[in-house]
Amino acid sequence: AQKVTQAQTEISVVEKEDVTLDCVYETRDTTYYLFWYKQPPSGELVFLIRRNSFDEQNEISGRYSWNFQKSTSSFNFTITASQVVDSAVYFCALAQGGGADGLTFGKGTHLIIQP
Amino acid sequence: DAGVIQSPRHEVTEMGQEVTLRCKPISGHDYLFWYRQTMMRGLELLIYFNNNVPIDDSGMPEDRFSAKMPNASFSTLKIQPSEPRDSAVYFCASSDENLAKNIQYFGAGTRLSVL
User: Fold this and answer.
1) Which residues from A are below 8 Å from B89, CB to CB?
2) Could A47 and B104 be called an inter-chain contact, meaning their C-beta atoms sit closer than 8 Å?
3) Which residue in the set A45, A101, A106 is minimally distant from B106, CB to CB?
4) Contact A100/B at CB under 8 A
């Protein structure tokens, strides 16, 4: 069975602070894919990043960066210089095998950026 | 390009009534997924299709739930009879290995309230 744990239920920071959202996963597969999605207050789910199990390179996209470490089964997400518009629920998710299967989601982290 | 389109956006019904949720995937995508989001259980996969064929329906909660995909551009999720505990947001997502690298793109969701 596979599992995704986001231990931080809610995080509140002041604008411009850096914030890291934690994600720990469990799977028996050697091939798998990890994802982060954003759910703003409007409710839709917005894709942010996809990473396969063979690519441990960290990735940076603007103010967003992701740290994938297979040794600790973690795929953490950092927002640098946070902005109020970053306020949302962020979900980490796992897809086994080739990545075409359904996603197993974590419970999500509610991020609140205060002005 | 249009994204995944779900209808209706909101549905309010009374216990015992039949409810049909609809989804139009992104053109060219050959995978379609149905998820349910509740406060208690988070985001759960209900069923998914590949080339209009159901692949995994192990997440469908009960026989009251059924899903069909009569063609590549349309899918339905039906609940009959509906119960208050079915109240949730239902998301449809689609993906494709070639076009979308197995990234699932989500519709805006249908918020179902069963009274």
Assistant:
1) 43
2) yes
3) A45
4) yes
With a cut of 70, which residues of chain B have pLDDT below it? Answer: 1, 99-100
DSSP character at residue B26: P
| pLDDT tens-digit readout, A80-113 | 999 999 999 999 999 987 667 899 999 999 999 9
How far is the C-alpha of B57 from the C-alpha of A81, rounded, in Å? Answer: 42
What was the pLDDT predicted at B99? 64
Buried b (16+ CB within 10 A) or exposed e, B53-86: eeeeeebbeeeebebebeebbebebebeebeeeb
Q: How far apart are CA B35 and CA A100, in angstroms?
A: 15
- Residue corresponding to tokens 């299967």: A101
- Both tokens assigned to B57: 């329906």
Amino acid at A66: W
